[in-house]
Amino acid sequence: MENALQAVILSVLLLSIIFLVVIILIFTIKLLVYLLPHKTPLASSTPSPARPATQRAATGSEEAEHLAAITGALANHLGRNPDELQISKIKVI
């Protein structure tokens, strides 16, 4: 009976130490976040300028090349034959 009581006391003591260490780590992390806040890079914090409204219109051969490149890339990504795909409209975002 005495051994069982010692085992319970030892278990409670060890669990207390573990929780104390975890609590110390939590407060250490909170202190570091307060003292050293995360700063975002300037490039991502400033909004990107809007695209100009006037863009150069693609000629027929350029448009065909763009369509072929997009079809090839999409077919490669999907693992299909490019002849199986039909792209009907391309919208510039």
Could you explain the architecture of this structure?
By secondary structure, the chain is mostly helical. The protein folds into two domains: 1-37; 59-88. The protein is built from three helices and no strands. The mean pLDDT is 83.
Describe the structure concisely:
This protein has 93 residues and is mainly α. It is 61% helix and 0% strand.
Descriptive labels:
93 residues; mainly alpha; 2 domains; 3 helices; elongated
Structural class: mainly alpha
Q: Whole-number average pLDDT?
A: 83
Global Rg: 32 Å
Please tell me what the overall shape is. elongated
> Biggest sheet, open or closed, and with what strands and sense?
none
- The domain tally reads 2
Helicity range of the residues? 55-70%
Total of DSSP H or I helical runs spanning 4+ residues: 3
Terminal-residue CA separation:
77 Å
Write down the secondary-structure element order: HHH
This entry's quaternary arrangement is single chain
- Name the poorly predicted regions: none
